[in-house]
Amino acid sequence: MLNGLDIEGNSPLHRMPVRGKLILLFTAAILLLLISDLRILVPALALTALLYLSTGIGLKEAFRRTRFVLFTVLLVALANYLFHSVHEALVVFCRLSALVLLAAAVTATTGISAFMDEITRLITPLERFGFVRAADVSLAVGLVIRFVPEIFARYGEIADAHRARGLRVRPLTMLVPLIILTLKDADTIAMAIDARGFRRH
Amino acid sequence: MTTRDIVLVALFAAIMVVLGLLPPITLGFIPVPITAQSLGPMLAGCILGARRGSAAMLLVLLLVAIGLPVLSGGRGGLAIFAGPTAGYIIGWVVGAFVCGLIAERLVREDQSELSQFISFLVASVIGGIGIVYLFGMPWLAYMSGKAFFETAAASLVFLPGDLIKAFVAMLAARAVLAGYPLLPQRA
User: Which CATH number is correct for B3-24+35-179, 3.40.50.300, 1.10.1760.20, 1.10.357.10, 2.170.130.30?
Assistant: First the structure.
């Protein structure tokens, strides 16, 4: 039910290490927000669009994934056009679209587990301060992926129970039993985790 | 955090993912469809409290970042954090924390039903709307370039819908408190 957004492939971006890609994205974000010269921004947008398509994603899927964010970018550009100038609108549009496409390209070329490994490496130094334990974060991510299909099925059962009683399926009467029934499982799941000694200190 | 707290955080994040899989609800009198998912920060704070609630939201953001399509409409990936509305999503974490902080201080199990309702509504409005907008609007304004004032003001069209959400969160949080109280035992 929960599949990652990464695409199989062997493009240069695929072969780059995860940390390198994140540093690239971060640097690009800062540069794009500082530059407001269209002579740089237009080629930048073209370059990121090419980079995104070079991941082998296909035009249709590429658009499907970014359309919502690009729509908000378009709205912001439209506001600039209406209240300021065409130039401002183009600057904002090129800058933000380039950033969105680059971010989408990084996501398309990075597998879930590779990304999770990098996250674990990045938060391990924080363990010393006692904020968080890297193993707990991985455990929590694993639990979510494990339980989403189950909770989704439970939602279906509660909706069926509504219909069987001739009740309309309304958000509030669905939400409360869904939350209570799901969270009530926490005790047994926690016991099962502790019984297997997953969180040994 | 105990193992039980981690499990509660993960289960709540999973509920939020499921809420994103459902089709959005349209109410007759406002044009924007309501996604049940955006109830998340209010519910997380009011039901799990400040620490566990914000941890659940942080977990959802982590899932988005590593490339799982967990936001409503199958959205996900780093592009979400690069868009002009990223501030609202970041605001979920702090919003849930503040919402939980207020709920933990105001709500007690021996209160009357009405004062519990009011406390949850105050927590949802301040944490789930005030704080989320506090992060969302400046970010949107910054990303909008010269039209910063106009776009920030335009984003206020979502306020009526969000007030309805705060009301729904209030009803749900109070019902969960009656059925399976988690708020009193803080993490």
Answer: 1.10.1760.20
Where does residue A94 fall: left (phi above 0), alpha (psi -120 to 50 degrees), or beta otherwise? alpha
Q: In terms of domains, do A103 and A147 share one?
A: no
What is the predicted ipTM? 0.89
- Which chain B residue's Cα is nearest to A178? B15
Angle between helices B132-143 and B86-106 in degrees, nearest 10: 160
CA contacts within 13 A on the Cβ side of B133: 16
Return the ∠ at Cα B88 (arms to B162 and B34), rounded to 5°.
Answer: 35
Residues of B in contact with A69 (CB under 8 A): 75, 79-80, 82-83, 85
Query: Which residue reads 């992060």 in tokens?
Result: B135
> What are the structure tokens assigned to A38, written together?
């269209």
pLDDT digits (tens, 9 = 90+) for B58-80: 999 999 998 888 888 778 888 88
Residue where the block lists tokens 């899927």: A61
- Residuewise pLDDT in 10s, chain A (201 residues): 677 788 888 888 888 888 898 999 989 988 988 888 888 899 999 999 998 988 888 888 888 888 888 888 888 888 888 888 888 889 889 999 999 999 999 888 888 888 888 888 888 888 888 778 888 898 999 999 999 999 999 999 999 999 999 998 887 888 999 999 999 999 999 999 999 888 765
Contact A183 B12 (CB under 8 A): yes
Which spans in chain A are helix H? 12-15, 18-34, 38-53, 59-83, 86-108, 112-123, 134-164, 171-184, 186-195
* Angle, alpha carbons B70-B27-B75 (nearest 5°): 15
B 102-161: CB under 8 A from A: 140, 143-147, 150-151, 154
The number of C-alpha atoms within 13 Å of A124 and in the hemisphere containing its C-beta is 7
